[in-house]
Amino acid sequence: MGLILNLETATTNCSVCLAKDNRILASRENDTPNYSHSEQLHVFIQECLEETDFMMTDVDAVAVSKGPGSYTGLRIGVSAAKGLCYALDIPLIAIPTLKNIASQARDVQADYIIPVLDARRMEVYATIFDANLNEIRTTKAEIIDEHSFKEFYRDHTVHILGNGAEKIAATLKNPNISYNAAVQPSSKEMVSLAYEKYVLKEFEDVAYFEPYYLKDFILQTKKK
């Protein structure tokens, strides 16, 4: 049995779902700009278990969004996932946050899918996928200007989605580009990705796994 607890906390969306053999049994999520993950995450986990009459000891693996994304959000989700996996001696599965977003464009007709997360100012985190969601360019942080992604939309159609899409749309206006800024990563989109890794036994080292922050977290201090 593949009973997997999926945790998504990389953005403002605190999202939890329990899935068995690639089928969602219960889910909870709340997207709020207040980043209420620390208050809601464990409540959502317990509610999903209670709804399905499972106990935490029944769970076979925990899947967590690995980033990039919010430093605090990722830290909360990964800490919870690692704690559960360590205590229960079960596998940890890591899902790239931008692949989660890209999965929500399965029905979009475009040659390239570009999921983007807002990284403040005019910077985004972006990965490039082809129409079959095969990664063709790894994730990186980039500053958006009039030349961004030109090699992809010059002769092909491109769909850009995620909470960084709005700032890009204000800069790149081309008929080959479509946008969806409303998409957020969700634990429900992790289900098939996590189950595939579970079957293939693609697990993380619980002791050493860390979120993929991409950019170093810088503590801002007041100037004296």
Model description:
This protein has six helices and ten strands, in the order E-E-E-H-E-H-E-H-E-E-E-H-E-H-E-H. The chain is an alpha/beta fold and 224 residues long. It has two domains: 3-97 and 185-200, Nucleotidyltransferase, domain 5; 99-180, 2-Layer Sandwich (Nucleotidyltransferase, domain 5), CATH 3.30.420.200. The strands form two sheets. A five-stranded mixed sheet has the order 3-2-1-4-5, sandwiched between helices. A five-stranded mixed sheet has the order 8-7-6-9-10. Helix 1 (37-52) crosses helix 2. Mean pLDDT is 93; it is low at 216-224.
Question: What's the helix and strand layout?
Answer:
Elements: E1 3-8, E2 13-20, E3 23-31, H1 37-52, E4 61-67, H2 71-88, E5 92-96, H3 97-102, E6 112-118, E7 123-130, E8 135-143, H4 150-153, E9 158-161, H5 165-169, E10 177-180, H6 187-200
Parallel strand pairs: 1-4, 4-5, 6-9, 9-10
Antiparallel strand pairs: 1-2, 2-3, 6-7, 7-8
